[in-house]
Design a protein that fits this description.
alpha/beta; two-stranded antiparallel sheet; binds iron/sulfur cluster; globular; 9 strands
Length: 332
């Protein structure tokens, strides 16, 4: 092997991690791979990881384009700073991975698309019981003080997914992705066995396929929230009237919520080839609720059934409103 080829083969992978509109759980998930992190650092250098090491944006700006081999980007895009970093890291990375539900589908922060900036600032800074703000001060992008001008990123009206902002190479779903899934992705990168660009690194099955319960086509009469059920039986939760998103959700998590008798809330994102996770679940629910016979029901009866879903957007689009077919409330 020539000296040059040997040096290339021995060169460690250059990795980066970044967080945008996120809760920090995806960063913890990276640490959750436990001692396997030692295997990662044996083959990779971490060039940029703001949550763990003191890097500055200027360090990234100074890098040559494509200097980073793989960047794992978690969090949705909600501010101008996050948009800038997404574009910068895209330019500096050969491979960009949307890591976790927030980057892949918009995640929990994406639920804010039922409001706009004005409404969110109103609740956060003005009109809530624990805030005392007589001068009604809300964050501004620029404020002059005697020492100079202070600036803040612009807060956008709409939360976007990473791929609504920049080109994304791979998707790693989950809130957060499981340690096994993270190691699968890292293994594929290290061994240069990545699937075709645009692939979701995850299961091709649904959560129902991985669930210990059998799902039957049994009809239900009413929908209940978990706390309204006296005793959860050891059988499919949907049959017990609890909305479980398993049939509309990509597996890969071994249906872990079901092992704790908690319904799947959908963090794996839509099943493969599904256009809209929420629409798929609504259709499944309608069929087991018997709404397909609605022509024989009065409007009130249909409405009564529908009203049992207390929080439709939060139930059907908990992790993916920005990537849904209808991805925000239309504001006047
Ligand atoms: S995907 Fe989940 S764990 Fe990761 S940042 Fe978003 S909310 Fe947090
Ligand atoms: S609907 Fe939920 S409880 Fe029923 S089989 Fe699917 S994942 Fe399991
Ligand atoms: S069961 Fe559903 S909510 Fe729970 S980890 Fe799996 S995909 Fe996420």
């Amino acid at each position: 092997m020539s000296k040059e080829k040997k040096a290339k083969a021995n060169k460690k992978l250059q990795l980066a991690f970044y967080w945008a509109a996120s809760c920090g759980g995806c960063e913890i998930a990276v640490l959750d791979i436990d001692e396997k992190i030692l295997d990662v650092v044996a083959v990779a250098d971490i060039l940029f990881w703001p949550v763990a090491m003191d890097f500055k944006y200027k360090d990234v700006e100074a890098m040559k384009d494509n200097h980073i081999d793989v960047c794992f980007f978690n969090g949705a895009i909600r501010t101008s700073e996050q948009e800038y970093m997404a574009k910068l890291l895209r330019k500096k990375s050969k491979v960009l991975v949307a890591f976790g539900s927030c980057a892949v589908n918009g995640g929990i922060p994406g639920l804010a698309n039922i409001a706009n900036k004005e409404e969110i600032f109103n609740v956060s800074y003005l009109d809530n019981p624990s805030t005392d703000n007589p001068k009604k001060i809300v964050p501004k992008t620029s404020v002059k003080v005697k020492e100079g001008t202070l600036t803040l990123p612009e807060f956008y009206d709409t939360v976007k997914t990473l791929d609504q902002t920049v080109d994304v190479d791979y998707y790693l779903p989950g809130c957060p992705p499981t340690p096994d899934l993270i190691m699968t992705a890292v293994g594929a990168i290290v061994e240069n066995k990545l699937p075709p660009k645009g692939s979701v690194i995850g299961s091709m099955k649904s959560v129902c396929d991985e669930c210990r319960f059998e799902k039957s086509e049994k009809k239900i009469k009413e929908i209940k929230r978990v706390y309204e059920v006296d005793k959860i039986e050891d059988k499919c939760l949907l049959e017990q009237g609890i909305i479980c998103m398993g049939s509309a959700t990509r597996g890969g998590c071994d249906a872990r919520c079901l092992d704790a008798n908690m319904p799947c809330t959908g963090c794996g994102g839509p099943t493969p080839n599904s256009l809209d996770q929420g629409a798929k679940m609504i259709s499944a629910l309608a069929s087991i609720l018997g709404i397909e016979g609605e022509e024989k029901m009065s409007d009130e009866e249909v409405q009564k059934l529908i009203d049992q879903v207390v929080d439709p957007v939060g139930t059907f689009y908990k992790y993916g409103l920005p990537s849904a077919l209808i991805n925000r409330r239309v504001m006047k």
